[in-house]
Amino acid sequence: MTKSVFVTGVSTGVGKTYFSYLFLKKLGQMGMKTLYFKPVETGGDQPEDYTICSGVASYSHQPIYHFKNPLSPHLAAKMERRKINIHKIKEAVRKMRERKDIDLIVIEGAGGILVPLTEKYLYRDLISDLKIPIVVIASSYLGVINHSLLTIEAARKKGIQIKGFILNFIREPENIAEQTNSQALRRLLGKLYLGEINSGEEILSDKITKKLIKRIFQNR
Predict the structure, then answer these.
(1) What is the Cα 174 distance to its own chain's centre?
(2) Among 118, 117, 94, which residue's Cα sits nearest to residue 105?
């Protein structure tokens, strides 16, 4: 079975797509064959996240569902009088995992781990059912420590493997909270904390990449 990792976040707009882009680009430079998949994308006339990441992945799978309203998937679907079929998403992932020409599948969620895909089915349920490990992305803002710890706790309650945590600096820190979040999270998360990325970077660092790849490809 082809290895896979699910990119989730502590909230929306924290940099999941940005990280996915940097990670996929780095893996490509390392000679690895990758596949990018965002099962559900909301917002815009076209799936922009898919467009961004498919450009640096070896292969990509278009979103199974794309909704124009930038809302939680369950609500965006309701607004367009459509329904999200979870089995369809699972089946797509199953087929991807059977491919022999891919080293790693990078799957990106929408919003955080507890965002609903349907009225009663969360992203956390999908990740758990598929038995895919996660990497958690957060941006530095007042409140991110709490949101990060809650995300980690929510994943662990479902037995989801967490391969790492990355803090994304969307802009220069503007206050004492934003300046010290990295120190606090590094201390609280220990080995889970892989490092930081900054706005304007064109590729993921060797240090973060090597740590994450090692954890994804180890058996446990």
Answers:
(1) 26
(2) 94
CB distance 140 to 172 below 8 Å:
no
Q: Could you give the domains of the chain?
A: 3-217 (3.40.50.300)
Instruction: Note whether 214 and 191 are within 8 A (CB).
Output: no
- Between CA 115 and CA 119, with CA 116 as vertex, the angle to 5 degrees is 160
Which of 217, 163, 220, 161 lies closest to 2 in space, CA to CA?
Answer: 217
Q: What is the pTM of this model?
A: 0.96
Catalytic residues: 38
Q: Which of 67, 89, 88 is nearest to 79 (CA)?
A: 67
Is the pLDDT confidence value at 219 over 70?
A: no
Measured distance CA(53)–CA(48) in Å, rounded: 9
